[in-house]
Input
Amino acid sequence: MPSPARSFADDVRARDDAELARLVRLRPDLARPAPANLSALAARAATVPSTRRALEQLDAGLLHVLESVLVAGASGPAAAALLGTDEATLAAPLDELWGRGLVWRSPEGMRPARAVGETLTHPAGLGPVAAELGVRPPADVGAAVSGLSDAARRVLDRLRWGVPRASFEGAALTAARDELVTAGLMARLDGADAVVPREVGIALRGGVLHENPLLPPDSADLTTLTTADIDASAGAEALELLDQVEEVARAWEGDPPRVLRSGGLSVKDHKAVATRLDSGLDRAAFVVEIAAAAGLLASDGELDPSWLPTPAYDDWRAREPGRRWADLAVAWWSTVRAPSLVGERLEGRSVVNVLSEQAAWPLLRTRRHDVVAVLAGLPAGAAPRLADVEERLRWMRPLRLPSGAPTQVATVLQEAAWLGVTGRGALSAVGRGLHDGLDPADLGRVAAAHLPEPVDHVLVQADLTAIAPGPLTDDLGRLMRLAADVESRGGATVFRFTPGSVRRALDSGLAGADLLDQLGAASRTPLPQPLSYLVADVARRHGQARVGSVGCYVRSEDETALSAMLADRELAPLQLRRIAPTVLVSPAPAATAMELLRAHSPVAETSDGGLVLAGRTARRATGRGSSAARPVTVDPVDETVAADLVARLRQHETEAAERRETQQGPQIPHTDATVAVTMLADAAADHAAVWLGYVDETGDVRRALFRPERVNGGRVVGSIEGSASRRTLPIHRITGVAPVE
Output
C-alpha cells in the first residue's frame, strides 16, 4: 500500500511510471501540451477545467462514490454509509478514481482533489454545508421535522431528493419558508429563495445520498442476433451508401452545383440530390456530408465556386469496396459535421444548409463515440431498443446527460445504420473495429469480409428493364448506371433503359453495337427486341447532326432533320440559317448549340470532320477551396505517447536533482497563469512555501521563497522568506512557480 501524501501534488509526484502513464492516458488533456515537470503535471491535473473534463468521463457508479467521499470529507465508514454499503465494496471504485487523479491518499484516507469540490458544488443534489450558510441546524432533524406544519413538511418532501434550493412565492409558501428557516432546516438566500443545508438534506434522506441503489442497467432482456445476420445487414447498407456516394460524385463532376454566397449547398440542389438518389432529404444530406467529410467532395475555390469531386475521390473510387467502406466509417468517426441539423433554423440564423458552416456540431462527434461505446459494452449480438441505449448512455455519462437532456441517440443510431456501423440495431464488426481504434487499412480488411458477394449478371426484361439480383461488380454496376436509370432499389435493383440513358452511354464513346454486346454478355436472359430496337434507333440518330464553330455550323445528310431544326421555335436563340441543303450556321458558340440541340442527338466534330466525344468532362476540385466538412483529427494519447512523456518527466526530475546539489533552490520553469494560480492556492491551503519567479517594479526578474496566504482578484498575498512585511503580487507578473522539495 503506497504511503499517504502531504498534498494532492505530492500524491501525483509519488506515483510510479506505470501509474503516471495511466493517468495521462485517462486524462489526455494533461499531455497536451507536454508539462515541463511533474509539479506542472500535478498542477494541471488540479485545475478546474481539467478536473471537469475528467468528471464528465465518470459513469454514475464512480460519480456516486466520489460524491460520497466529497460529502464525508474522506473515504472510510462514513463515506460507505452514505451509499448504504461497506468499505470493501468501495475499494475498487476508489482505486479507479485515484488512477484518474480525482482523489489522493491522505493520512485520513482518500480525499477528493480541491478542484472536485469546486466543480461538484452540489454533490448528489445537496446544498452547501451549514457553516458556509451561517446557520446551525437542529441536533435532531427528525424531531424538528415532526414539529412542522403540514405545508412546511410538504416543502421538505419536494426538496428531499431534488435540488436543495427553491423560490417561495405567495403568502402560504413564504410562511412555510419562514417556519423552516426558524427551525434551522433551511437558510435564507437572496430575495424569496432559500436552501436546505447539506447536513439537513442528508438527515432527510435517512443518511444516504441517493434514492436508488448503485446498479447499472440490466442486460438480461436484450434481443440477441447472430453475428452473421448483423454483419450481412451492415454490409448491404454500406454497399448502398458506396453506390450513392458515386452517384452524387458522377452527377456533380459534369454539372456541379454552385456554392452559396453564405457557404453550403442550396435547398434546390439538396432536393435534386434526394431525387437522384430516390431518398429522403435527411438521407441525401448524410450522403453528401459523409462524402465531404472523407475529402471526396469540396469547393473548387474559383471566383464563382462550385462543389466538385476531389482528386482524392478518384483514388477512393479505385480502391476495393471494403477499404472504401472503411474510409467513410473513419470519416464519420472523426468528423464534427452534423447532417441532422440540415433544414433546422438555429436561433437567430437562417435555415441550415448542407455543407454549410452551421452544420458543424462538435458535441455530436462525442455522442457518436459514447453511443458506440455503449453498444460495444453489451454482450455480442445484442440489439438494444432506443430506450435501452438512452438509459445506458445516461448511466455512462451522468454529468453530460442529466435527466431531461436530449441524448441524440436516435440520430446517431440512424447514421450508424446507414453507414453499416450497426446491422439490425446491433454493433457490426466494422463498428467494433472503429471503437477499438483500428487504422483504415485493417478496418478495410474487416469490412471486406462482410460485404455481400457481388454478382456479375443482370436479367434484362422485355419491358426495357433490367434486374440486378444483388450487388453488382464494380465494372458491371458502372455500365448499368451509365446505360440505364435506377428505377428502384432494395435487395434487387431495377434499372430502366430510356432514350436518354442510351444516349448517355453513346455520348461516353460506346458504339451502339458495343453497348449491345456488353449488355448481352452480362445478361442471363437474351436481349429482348425492344432493347435492340431502342439502342439501334438512338444510335442511328446519334451523330447525324454535326456541330462545329463558325460561331458554329450544323451539318447533316438528312435535309429533313435540318428543316425541322429551322422550324423549331425553341431553337430561335441559335438564329440558325441554311447556307447549303445540308448545312446550317449559327452565331452561337458550339457548346451552346450542342446544349440546345440535345433533343436532335447531335455530336461535335473537329474542323476536319473528326468526331469529338460529347461525354461530360470529369471536373475536379483543385484543392484551392476548402471543404466545410473536412474531418477534424485528434492525436490520441496512447501507451507509447504516455510512456515517452513519463520518461521525459523522469529525466527532468533527475536533472533538477543534480542542479539542486549545486545551487540554492530549484530551477523555476515558466508556468501558465492558470497553473500558477492553482499551485499558489494549494500552497496557501496547506500553509506551505513555494519558489516564485516574478518581475519586480523595475522590470528585473527575481526569485524568492514565497509563502502565499490567499489568492483572489488576480493577486496573491503572502510574505517572502526572511522578510516580515507582506507582499501583494499581480498574477501577470509571476513568471513561474515551483514547489519546495
Summary: Confidence is low (pLDDT under 50) at residues 624-629. The two ends are 23 Å apart (CA to CA).
